[in-house]
Amino acid sequence: MADTSLTYDRTVKVPLNARHGIPEVWLIDLPGETVEVYREPSPDGYRHLRRYGPGQRIQSLRVPEVELDPVELFR
C-alpha cells in the first residue's frame, strides 16, 4: 500500500516489476482511495494502467477468483 511512498512506487518499483515481466501489479493509493492496476509488462514499463475507485470491481487476470471493490480497503 502506498501513502508516503506513492511516487517512488510508481516511478521505481512498478517499472522494475515490468522489466522483470511481472504480469500484473496492484498499487493501492491510500490518499486517493484508488487501486492502480498495471498489466502487459514490457522492458519500457506497463502498457496498460487502469485506476479503480469505490464501486468498481477489480478482478485479477492471474487469479480470476480474486475480486475486490476498492471501498473494502478504505473502511
Automatic annotation (TrEMBL):
Pfam name, any one: Uma2
All copies of domain Putative restriction endonuclease, residue ranges: 2-69
SUPFAM superfamilies the UniProt entry points to: Restriction endonuclease-like
CDD domains: DUF820-like
Domain of life according to the entry: Bacteria
Protein name per the record: Putative restriction endonuclease domain-containing protein
Species whose genome carries this gene: Methylocaldum marinum
Classification lineage: Bacteria, Pseudomonadati, Pseudomonadota, Gammaproteobacteria, Methylococcales
